Amino acid sequence: MTALMILADAVVVIVAALAAAWFVGRRARAKLEQTHRDAELEARRMLAAAQQEAEQRLRDAGVEAREKLLTARSEFERETHEYRQELLALERRLDQREGALDERARNVDAQVKDLEDRKHQVEERETVLALQEDALAAAAAEQRAQLERIAGLTSDQAKAELVRAMENDARMDAAKTLRRIEEEANQEATNRARRVISLAIQRIAAEHVVESTVSVVDLPNDEMKGRIIGREGRNIRALETATGVDLIVDDTPGAVLLSCFDPVRREVARLSLERLMLDGRIHPGRIEEVVGKIRQELEEKIFRDGEAAAIELGQPDFHPEILRLLGRLQYRTSYGQNVLLHSKEVAWLSAHMATELGVNVRVAKRAGLVHDIGKAVDREMEGTHLTIGRDLLRKYGESEEVVHAMECHHGDVDARSIEAVLVTAADALSAARPGARREILESYLKRLEKLEGIANEFKGVQKAFAIQAGRELRIVVESEKLSDEDAVWLSRDIAKKIEAELTYPGQIKVTVIRETRAVEYAR
Fold first, then answer.
1. Coil, strand or helix: which one is 360?
2. Are residues 1 and 106 in the same domain?
3. What is the DSSP letter of 383?
4. 79 and 176 inside one domain
5. Cβ neighbours, 10 Å, residue 357
6. Is residue 322 situated within a structural domain?
């Protein structure tokens, strides 16, 4: 009983378990089917999204491709257009060249035709000339035969007589022509010689001999002469070497003489000697120092003199270098006439005449003041004082009106303005007034300058001074470039060149000075 009950219970349990299992299986199948359906829906949805995205990307790619295609097409069309324009331009140039070639070909054809016509004409003329020559030859032969019969001369004899007559006529004509050419050449040579001599006199001019070559320096006592000379004459040699002036110490009481044809050098020497006497220290080192300072001070004074002259004429706006050159004219003379005073006189005369005529007073006055500006440096630069002055004025900014009026004052340039004529007239008036100028020994001064020029042409020469009225040439050489033996040969070479190039009375002493200094300082 119990067993049956147990069995029944087991069956019930089994049945219940089977029912539960079937129910669970059903539920699981339903759930699995639902999951499968959800997965299938999700797959379809994802597939649809993927297809949509693919289609979108495809559309975007198509749009981008169309844009690139449009861009490429535009670029291609632009390049094609440019290439087409180039082709068109090239075609136009080719058309133009073809037209030019056609025109040239037509011209060539015309020239060829013209040449052919001329050739035919020349051939016809040659034919005519040949006929005429034959006729003339026949006529000449007939005339020759008649002349031989009449004159009783053969052809060769008549020809010789004719040649003889023609030679005589040619010689007479040649002699007349030669005489005329010689006369013209002599006249031209005379005119050019006069012009060259006049220009040389204008450039190398000084006051009368005493005033131009000698200055007197008063001494406080005769004892000062010994101090100026120094031990074994070293002070006087140092002063002469530094200044280029001949210092003459003689028996004249209370005075020494400074001899030199260059007034600037003589003024430097005079001021230097006066300062040395006032200072009391006279030795070679001090002499060189004082001479250097005096030169600098004299340059400043020269500038002040030029500035004062410009201010006096009411023309203070000159370039500083022009003012300095005007000051240098204070120490330049022409036929004994001070060039700076002469220039101021010419400026005033030009200004007065310009005022009377109603022309440009400023141009006339400025041109008159600077008309001889080239004389301030004509011993240092090549060219006449006219060309030097013209170049200087243009260099320092003067107007062309002033430059032209200046360059015309000797008549070498034709005047194109009234101011130029006035400056020329004023220059002649200033030079021609009584007492303005004196005839002086131009050849003497020129010889002194030539002496120094010959020495300065040699290598190693530092300074050269013509002293003793041209009877001695003193030359200072650079010791590092020339030895003592070279100095001896240099003096001989210079003496030989002077003998070959100059004409002078008596003899000229050539002195070459070579000095070596060793300087050390005790500290």
1. coil
2. yes
3. S
4. no
5. 14
6. no
**Where does 180-238 show beta strands of DSSP type E?**
214-218
CA–CA separation, 230 and 282 (whole Å): 8
In SS3 terms, 277-316 reads as HHHCCCCHHHHHHHHHHHHHHHHHHHHHHHHHHHHHCCCC
3-state secondary structure of 118: helix
Query: Of 178, 203, 228, at which residue does a domain stop?
Result: 203
Rounded to 5 degrees, φ, ψ at 486 are -65, -35
Which of 439, 469, 500 is at the close of a domain? 439
Range of the domain at 263: 216-312
Q: Are residues 244 and 180 in the same domain?
A: no
Picking from 324, 344, 351, 336, the residue whose alpha carbon sits closest to that of residue 422 is 351
Closest Cα partner for 335 from 377, 390, 365, 375? 375
Residue 131 lies in a domain: no
Dist. CA 494–CA 388, nearest whole Å: 30
Burial class from Cβ neighbours inside 10 Å (0-12, 13-18, 19+) for residue 12 reads exposed
The one-digit pLDDT tens for each residue of the chain (523 residues) are 566 677 777 777 787 778 777 877 777 777 877 887 888 888 888 888 888 888 888 888 888 888 888 888 888 888 888 888 888 888 888 888 888 888 888 888 888 888 888 888 888 888 888 888 888 788 777 777 776 666 665 667 767 776 776 776 676 677 667 667 767 777 776 665 445 334 433 433 333 333 445 677 777 777 787 888 788 788 888 888 888 888 887 766 778 888 877 777 888 888 888 888 888 888 888 888 888 898 888 888 888 888 888 888 888 888 888 888 888 888 777 766 788 888 888 888 888 888 877 888 898 889 888 888 888 876 677 778 888 888 888 888 888 998 888 888 877 788 888 888 888 888 877 776 554 454 444 566 777 888 888 999 898 898 898 887 677 889 999 888 888 888 888 888 898 898 888 876 667 889 999 887 777 878 7
Per the listing, tokens 């094609």 go with 80
Instruction: Report how far residue 420's alpha carbon sits from residue 257's, in angstroms, rounded to the nearest whole number.
Output: 44
Give the type of residue at 208.
Answer: H
Q: Do 8 and 68 lie in a common domain? A: yes
Strands 333-334 and 337-338: antiparallel
Any domain includes 323: no
Q: Quick one: 328 exposed, middle or buried, by C-beta within 10 A (0-12, 13-18, 19+)?
A: buried
286 and 279 Cβ atoms separated by less than 8 Å: yes
Residues 452, 431 share a domain: no
3 state SS of 513: strand
Give the predicted TM-score (pTM) of the model.
0.43
